[in-house]
Amino acid sequence: MPSPLGHTLAGLAVAELFQYREGRVRRQAMLMANAADLDMLPGVLTRRHPGAAHGRVSHSFGAALVAGVLAGGLAKARGRRFGPRFLQATAAYGSHVALDYFGKEPEDGLPVWWPVSERRHASTRRWFKTILSHSKKHGFWKGLLNRSNVEALAREGAVTVPAFLLARAIGKRLRR
Ligand SMILES: [Zn+2]
Q1: What residues of the chain score a pLDDT lower than 70?
Q2: Could you write out the three-class secondary structure of 164-176?
Q3: In angstroms, what is the span from residue 26 Cα to ligand 1's centroid?
Q4: Which of 38, 103, 122, 140 is 20 to 30 A from 59, comparing alpha carbons?
């Protein structure tokens, strides 16, 4: 799976595409792009393998729609329009599902079409590598420093940085 860095860049790309001007909304897009991984939190807190719970129903377009409705509802409660915020949040959250789809180990896959279908899917071509900590030997933070992780980050950047720049260019055109 891509790292939080890759997901955050994807969220920023969505923000650019929708031309969020306010910093607050930009931060929300970054949060939304990482929200699906909150399912890893129980594993992290109980110090079990953080990836164990990863890839449940939070990684689906159904969950992205729920996130969009929540964000739109919040906007409406603050006297703003439902539609734009719904679209922005759904797209930012959905970017996470899409990125993970292209970086998931195919053996278990993700239930991307939940709740319509429980079937798990993963791209046969993996664009992204999962960043792993060889913590047993070197401790968590030092365990992150290895060649495979550098390569994983480079691959992630090779996809998300151009996507961000493209989204920025498109967003600027739309503004004109
Ligand atoms: Zn994820």
Answers
A1: 20-22, 44, 47-55, 106, 176
A2: HHHHHHHHHHHHC
A3: 20
A4: 140
